[in-house]
Amino acid sequence: MKTARLMGASVLVAVMALAAGACGSPGSPSGSSNNEASQVHNDAKANDTAKCRNTVKKPNAEKVTVWAWYPAFGKLVDHFNETHDDLQVCWTSADQSAKAYSRFNTTIKAKSGAPDVIQLEYAVMPQFASGVEKHLVDLSKFGVDKIRSNYTAGAWKDVQLGGSKGVYGVPVDVGPVVMYYRKDIFDKYQVKPPTTWDEYEQAGRELKQKGYAGHIGNWQPNGTLFNYAYYDQNGAKVFKYSANDPENVGININSDKVKKVVSFWQKLAKDDIVATDDTDTAEWNKKNVDGSYATIIHASWLVGYLNGVSGVQEGSQWQIAKAPVWDQSDPDVNCGGSGMAVTDQAKHTEAAAKVAMELFGDDAAQDIAVNDSGLYPTWTKKLSSAAFLDRQEPFFGNQKINKIIAPVAQGYKGYQFLPFQTYANDEQTKTLSAILRDGKNASTSLDSLQQTLSDYAKQQGFKVSQ
């Protein structure tokens, strides 16, 4: 469970190519054009013979098929089915992100076989709802706006896909970015944990000067979503895309704000203040807990990973703090998260929309999501509840960590991804590797990356702005 959550951001890079093939260019669809009317279906009996992983509680009720890989999802499905007489969730696949997206892409090409409801990461959604090939249903026509106030503003923007009119999913979880740090290391060397990036650099140099053999942290060239979060925290709006304006994309990955962030990390890497290890490798997993890193700047779901991982250095003392900032007025960023979307192949679209909106839609469901699945909620009632905020985490010395993390989730403003995000991610990884490991000039390398992404977008038929 922990490993699956930890791998989400990097797995995404590999699987987006599969989704991109289903999208086509904005002016030339890869399949038949989908208009809003053709996305609405009304066959309440189509799933009567569907084979479910779960035991359907009320077999005479209408079934809605769902693909999802959340941990403890079966418990959540049982809760929904026990509390609904008109609909029953038929959980038909638990394939995780890469395999699920590949299968979904196959069903799009075949024009059959997709589930009614599917779990999708926010960064993937634009690739299934771009141009004229919208394979996700706009839920606004099914009353989704009535539940908008239940969710954080940033997560809601993530499922609006850059627009203000459509809603293409219901948020479930997010990954607020915070700083995990080794209190025992900072105490031993009498260095103050940093609150700004200038302090971070200074603390890293002090630790090194005082004999700490590790690094204050790690900058990962392949950590695509994390790197976007770093840029976002400095106010850089790298990508722009709206499902309401599908012919246009914005790309601004060579702005002064992005260059400042990358040059900062390049300087620290050159001086051996930070490591430049790729994420989601055995070596990276080991270094997270063996004392090699004094801090880990990461998403909230690292909590579950640290709680369950082996090899944690004996005597280590862990704490959580807000991530260092460039500007105290704009500190809250996110990495990862997903929601429930309705596909254009849903057999009874209105019923599927109800499942997407209500599956995580009560207190008991949110308790399962947080306590059993280990998800970080977008549900504002949960984020502000005393029980959630006051919960102590033994791994972190009984620190009330949600008092640190929850405000970041609440403060996150949303992010926009491209409908060809896989290509952008791959090219960014190549560029950052060359900058950090080969000493390439950060400014000119990012200028080249800007040109590469812009040229690619135009080749796909998009109009490009910065």
From TrEMBL:
Protein name (database record): Extracellular solute-binding protein
Xref: SUPFAM superfamilies: Periplasmic binding protein-like II
InterPro entries, alphabetized: Bact_solute-bd_prot1
Superkingdom, taxonomy of origin: Bacteria
Gene3D superfamilies linked: Periplasmic binding protein-like II
PANTHER family linked: ARABINOSE-BINDING PROTEIN-RELATED, BLR3389 PROTEIN
Location of the region described as Disordered in the Swiss-Prot/TrEMBL record: 25-55
Compositional bias annotation for Low complexity: 25-38
Keywords: Signal
Biased composition (Basic and acidic residues): 42-51
Signal peptide: 1-19
